[in-house]
Amino acid sequence: MSPANIVTIIRFILIPIFAVLAVRYADSIIAGDPQELLRWLSLSAFILAAAGDGLDGYLARKYGATKLGSYLDPLCDKVLMLVGLIVLCQVSWSPHGWVIPVWYVVMVVARDLSIATGCVFIKLMGKKLEVNTNWTGKATTVVQLFTLGWVMLRVVPFSPLVPTVAAAVFTLWSSWFYVREALRQLQPE
Fold first, then answer.
1. Of 90, 114, 146, the domain-final residue
2. Directed axis angle between helix 67-90 and helix 135-153, to 10°?
3. Which long-range contacts (CB under 8 A, 24 or more apart) does 166-171 make?
4. Residue 42 class from Cβ within 10 Å (0-12 exposed, 13-18 middle, 19+ buried)?
5. What pLDDT digit, counting tens, does each position of 77-123 carry?
6. Coil, helix or strand for 90?
7. Residues 169 and 187 grouped into a single domain
8. Nearest-angstrom CA–CA distance, 47 and 18
């Protein structure tokens, strides 16, 4: 197994660790005895899983990318983001009830499912699928991570609704790019 794939597998292992610790921290808040160690351990697992994306990319470039890695790495990125959003929309990391709104999680899941459906449709139509990224998709990921960090770090004493609305704007914007890209690929040659 390649070094990059090993890092990706470690990233996958960190995702449920983050989720379990996040839920346990939220339970400690509800119990009236916030266990800050749980918060920091959960946050550390999330940060390591997210930062590992850069490390596995570096290792793939240095030692060669594998076909398995080309599937596992983006899947890990998606699973990490979705688990983070789903967990932090269900449990509060603040006595003030800070959660990511469910409507935003539904929006992200709908966007990702529509992108996946579009890819399958393009292939079923006998077209060559071109996976083209755009800065709007990368910006969406950054704003989503910022929103998760807003909830987990609690540095600013304002509701997570502010960064969630910004993330929603970028999510819709990147969705529009991917719809246009799919339509372009479906045009007769």
1. 90
2. 40
3. 167/104, 167/140, 167/143, 168/104, 168/107, 170/136, 170/139, 170/140, 170/143, 171/104, 171/107, 171/108, 171/111, 171/140, 171/144
4. buried
5. 889 999 999 999 999 888 777 889 999 999 999 988 988 888 888 88
6. helix
7. yes
8. 9
Q: Are residues 177 and 120 in the same domain?
A: yes
**How many structural domains does the chain have?**
2
Residue 119 · residue 129 · CB < 8 Å: yes
Q: Read off the pLDDT band of 159 (50, 70, 90).
A: confident
| Sequence letter at residue 60 | A
* Domain-embedded: residue 55: yes
- Asked if 8 and 69 touch (Cβ cutoff 8 Å), the reply is yes
How many degrees, rounded to 5, is the angle at CA 90 between CA 86 and CA 96?
130
**Which of the listed residues 90, 110, 127 is the one where a domain comes to its end?**
90
Range of the domain at 57: 1-90
Residues composing the chain:
189
pTM of the model: 0.86
